[in-house]
Amino acid sequence: xxxxxxxxxSIVLVAAGCSAWLINESSAIYCDSLPELTVxxxxxxxxxxxxxxxxxxxxERRARWILLVWLLIAAGTLxxxxxxxxxxxxxxxxxxxxxxxxxxxx
Length: 106
Known about the structure:
It is built from 3 helices and no strands. By secondary structure, the protein is mainly alpha-helical.
């Protein structure tokens, strides 16, 4: 097994774990976590492209299957992050308009 496949997999798993932790942090909605999820979605898209490149590079069937698994995990991360950010983006913008930062509320 090439070490590049393992490095790619570890990065995919860390990104997916961070994404799951931010999404499932608690039952409350944290608007401050939306930028981090956007960055993780961008990282997941980049990892998808890396997986596609590596699938073409390696002839070994086992390495290709493992890369396919990493690709599916990265795609799931991208989908979950996009869906979460899209769902709560409007709510967070309305909240920021009602309570602008820097102004006292009392």
